[in-house]
Amino acid sequence: MTPLEREDIEALATALYKIPKTLEKFGERLTLCPEPLRQTDFSRQAELLTSATETVLLLVKQLRNPKLEIVKEHNDKLQYLEGTADNLMLDLLRGLYAGDHDAVRVIALKDLYELLEKVIDRCRDAGNVIFHIVLKNS
Question: Which domains does the chain have, with CATH numbers?
Answer without folding.
Answer: 6-136 (1.20.58.220)
